[in-house]
Amino acid sequence: MNWFYETSVWVTLPLFLILFVGASCAIVIGLRPVVARLVDDRGEWDRALAHVTGTFGVFFGILLALVAVSVYENLAHTREVAIQEASRAGALYRASSALPDRGGDRMHETLDAYLRAVIDGDFPSQQRQVLPTSSDAQVDEMELILQSLEAETLTEQAEYKQVLETFDTFIEARRARIDATSLALPPLLWAVIWVGAAVNAVLIAFIAVKRLRLHLLMAGLLSLFIGLVIFVTADMDHPYAGSISIDAGAFERVLEQVVDEPG
Fold first, then answer.
1. pLDDT of residue 118
2. What is residue 1's predicted lDDT score, i.e. its pLDDT?
3. Tell me: the pLDDT tens digits for 118-138?
4. From the CB of residue 194, how many other CB atoms can be counted at a distance below 10 Å?
5. 257 half-sphere exposure, CB direction, 13 A CA radius
6. Of 226, 241, 161, whose CA–CA distance to 193 is shortest?
7. Rounded to the nearest 5 degrees, what angle is found at the Cα of 161, between the Cα atoms of 157 and 167?
8. 111: which residues sit within 8 A by CB, 6+ positions away?
């Protein structure tokens, strides 16, 4: 499915809707002769179909709503952890300024390299739904720097402790950002959604409408809306890929406003 996320939304959205609506209209055209042969009592048929359609519509609508909300919450959570990591990287950059034995300068250089590795390496990998490794070397380097330092005075010890605490929270945020790379709906749930969409198209085709154009219009409008909901849900399903996704903007701002700040 990488092609879906790598292709422009101006291509995937129209293509998806055309295929989705076209399939629904094809089901209507294919089942109309069957319905015409099977339906003897229109009144009884309409009552039974209204009950089945109404019940199914409630459950399918609830399913789509819950899935869409769940996917959006995953996206919002991923955005939050990315912002937290970027802000804690900035806090670590400022806190490490007072480290002894040129530790601050070495940390600054490593954090600069880390932010650039995240922007240029991690995020492109995560957009391809691959766990990133570009910034691993800088994290190891920061850990080695902190382990090599010795704080002698009480002031240095207090500042060193603060840096270590900031580094721990930074690592936690980084782990959360990386873990979100594989965040997605289970395939079984997607299978249920597609089965539900197919059943919905069949139920619409079962409606006994005399005019084919009116029947196709009804099926087309309903499938258009359902298709839009499914498309947006799929586009948000992987937080770092697609048109609705998390980018490296937070890290770019920290790099510009904190690391590359004049003076």
1. 96
2. 64
3. 999 999 999 998 999 999 999
4. 11
5. 11
6. 226
7. 145
8. 89, 92, 93, 96, 138, 142, 259
Cα separation of 78 and 182, whole Å?
11
> Are 8 and 219 a contacting pair, CB within 8 Å?
no
pTM: 0.86
DSSP helix, strand, coil percent of the chain (3-state; round to 5): 80, 0, 20
**Are the beta carbons of 96 and 107 closer than 8 angstroms?**
yes
What is the Cα–Cα distance from 154 to 149, expressed in whole angstroms?
14
Task: Supply the pLDDT for residue 250.
Answer: 94
Rounded to the nearest 5 degrees, what angle is found at the Cα of 113, between the Cα atoms of 107 and 114?
85
Cα(215)–Cα(50) distance, integer angstroms: 16
Low-confidence spans in the chain with pLDDT less than 50: 262-263
| 261: helix, strand or coil | coil
At residue 260, the pLDDT reads 74
